[in-house]
Amino acid sequence: MRIPRIYHPEPLIAGTQTSLDDEASNHVGRVLRMTAGQKLALFDGSNNVFNAEIIESTKKTVNVQINEGQLDDKESPLDLHLGQVLSRGEKMEFTIQKSVELGVNTITPLISERCGVKLDPNRLEKKHQQWQKIIISACEQCGRNKIPQLMPVITLEEWCAQVDDSLKLNLHPRASQSINTLPLPVKKVRLLIGPEGGLSPEEIAMTAKHHFTDILLGPRVLRTETTALTAITALQVRFGDLG
């Protein structure tokens, strides 16, 4: 049996004992049905992995002994911030999950003029909690030991106006540049992915005002979730750690 990787939200210290949080305890104790003496790999977001052994497992609680820890860096050299306009149904969850697997560092969900998703504050908070769980689960699955940051939902213009030193990119079907023609080196990218209906002409002009560069992925029109993952992959191949 492969040793399960479990995220622990508090700092882990070798040589101590701790209890897994409720969600992890349920997964380990009830879903995986693991018992005392079995091994876990724990990570706390510090980029370290700790060997651990279950010392008690019940239906509600799993207590573990934390053994040695070691640095296990799976992070890309490219610092990639995804600004993704909200998409319908499971598309947003899929985009978040796969972008984490591909090495995105920060994700900001956005609201734009043509955004087809309308959520009241209560539903939006529940969505945000669900997206955070998806990020953690993706890290457990893909081997990342740092948790990408999930930012609060903001408007497209608020996000574009934020000041940083990243290369700012906006996908546009009539752009003259591609990712392969962008000059090297690039260490930080802020990638904007619009809604299913695309950005309005006014929004495209606004992105230009905030120094976003329009880039083209190819001759075909892609769905928003395909666009995000294709662009992230191309950026990681050119500037990151995908071969």
From TrEMBL:
Catalytic activity: uridine(1498) in 16S rRNA + S-adenosyl-L-methionine = N(3)-methyluridine(1498) in 16S rRNA + S-adenosyl-L-homocysteine + H(+)
Cellular compartment(s): Cytoplasm
Enzyme's top EC category: transferase
Domain Ribosomal RNA small subunit methyltransferase E methyltransferase: 74-236
EC number per UniProt: 2.1.1.193
UniProt domain Ribosomal RNA small subunit methyltransferase E PUA-like: residue ranges: 20-66
Pfam families: Methyltrans_RNA, PUA_4
Keywords: Cytoplasm, Methyltransferase, rRNA processing, S-adenosyl-L-methionine, Transferase
GO CC terms: cytoplasm
Gene Ontology molecular function: any one: rRNA (uridine-N3-)-methyltransferase activity
Function recorded in the entry: Specifically methylates the N3 position of the uracil ring of uridine 1498 (m3U1498) in 16S rRNA. Acts on the fully assembled 30S ribosomal subunit.
Signal peptide limits: none
Record's keyword annotation contains Transferase: yes
UniProt keyword annotation of Cell membrane present: no
Source organism per UniProt: Proteus hauseri ATCC 700826
Family the UniProt entry places it in: Belongs to the RNA methyltransferase RsmE family.
GO annotation, biological process: rRNA base methylation
Classification via InterPro entries: Alpha/beta_knot_MTases, PUA-like_sf, RsmE, RsmE_MTase_dom, RsmE_PUA-like, tRNA_m1G_MTases_N
Main location, first listed in the record: cytoplasm
Protein name: Ribosomal RNA small subunit methyltransferase E
Cross-referenced Gene3D superfamilies: 3.40.1280.10, Hypothetical PUA domain-like, domain 1 (2.40.240.20)
